[in-house]
Amino acid sequence: MTEMHYIKAENKRILASNSVEYVYRELGEKNGVPIIALNHLSANLDNWDPVIIDGLAKDHWIITFDYQGVGGSTGNVPDTIQGMAEDTVNFINALGFSRVNILGFSMGGMVAQELMEQKPALVEKAILAGTGPRGGQGISDIIKISDFELLRAIANFKDVKTYLFFTRTSNGKNSASAFISRLKIRKDNRDKTINWFAYRKQLHAIKRWGEDSKADLSKIKQPILVVNGDHDIMVPTTPNTYDLHERLTNSELIIYKDSGHGSIAQNNVAFVKSANLFY
Questions:
Q1: Comparing C-alpha atoms, which of 45, 104, 101 is closest to residue 276?
Q2: How high is the pLDDT of residue 1?
Q3: CA-CA distance, 23 to 72, in Å (whole number)?
Q4: Residue 200 located in a structural domain
Q5: Which strand ranges, in their side-by-side order, compose the sheet holding 251-256?
Q6: Residue 277: CB partners within 8 Å, gap ≥ 6?
Q7: What is the domain extent for residue 73?
Q8: Which of 26, 70, 128, 275 is the most exposed place for a label (fewest CB within 10 A)?
Q9: 204 membership: H or E segment, kind and range
Q10: What is the CATH number of the domain that holds 134?
């Protein structure tokens, strides 16, 4: 196995103007436009696939962080996706960046869209993976889907991401097992698991975002790479991924075959190659 660096990255802390102390990790040479990675529902620093972070860090400066109220970050989880975007701006401002690239996965892709609407001059390029547009079809079913798969995971002694992120084909099952194993490689200074109440607050924020009115995505002029698997059960690929691509004025699209919501982890080597070319 190629030597991994993200699993050894230092947990750093920074105090922002909103009095929140954010926990973050950074990798890669500190020059150029940094990539700010926005993670999925319930995720902390340890939920990023180390193959993806290491792969991007070879050519780029990449920073992962915990939203406020998540993992080691202080504060309270915002109750809207728009609030999470404001939260992200506070973190970016604390680091002193005036221009960033974004890697938004799942809920992070929703936050990224709101971030570009709120602060368009802040974002140079963005990757939106495993996500859809505000008001997209099926997004408001997130609580029902997540709760069903969580009970299924508990009954089968599995990590819930096994069912939510991957297809149930032989390829999908093997990819799920490998991904879950990679997330456990780091043994020292692991991040804190999100608490139940913060997790439910995020779930309801996604539900409300799915019920909200559609955004005018034509206002987003930045280059965007839209990525998903062909069988995403959390944010249905059809129509959401295609709709997102069509409504963004400057976007590229990648759909991975026999892949689900976690397609970037299932196809991590191919994704890193495409992401490095994009950024």
A1: 101
A2: 46
A3: 6
A4: yes
A5: 12-15, 21-27, 62-65, 35-38, 100-105, 123-129, 224-229, 251-256
A6: none
A7: 6-278
A8: 26
A9: helix 196-211
A10: 3.40.50.1820
Instruction: Classify residue 256: in a domain, yes or no.
Output: yes
Instruction: Tell me the one-letter amino acid at 154.
Output: I
What are the tokens at 163? 């069912």
**Domain total for the chain?**
1
Retrieve residue 218's tokens: 């034509």
Residue 1 lies in a domain: no
Would residue 202 count as lying in a domain? yes
Task: Report pLDDT digits (tens) over 55-106.
Answer: 999 999 999 999 999 999 999 999 999 999 999 999 999 999 999 999 999 9
Length of the chain measured in residues = 279
pLDDT by position in tens, the chain (length 279): 456 799 999 999 999 999 999 999 999 999 999 999 999 999 999 999 999 999 999 999 999 999 999 999 999 999 999 999 999 999 999 999 999 999 999 999 999 999 999 999 999 999 999 999 999 999 999 999 999 999 999 999 999 999 999 999 999 999 999 999 999 999 999 999 999 999 999 999 999 999 999 999 999 999 999 999 999 999 999 999 999 999 999 999 999 999 999 999 999 999 999 999 999
Instruction: Reduce the DSSP state of residue 141 to 3 states and report it.
Output: helix
For 13, the token pair is: 């802390």
Give the other-Cβ count within 10 Å of 13's Cβ.
Answer: 11
| pLDDT at site 4 | 78
Token pair of 66, please? 């915990």
The H-assigned helical ranges of 9-160 are: 50-57, 81-95, 107-118, 142-155
Query: Which tokens in the block code for residue 112?
Result: 């990224």
| Terminal Cα-to-Cα distance of the chain (whole angstroms) | 26
d(CA 14, CA 209) in angstroms, rounded, equals 29
**What type of residue is 38?**
L
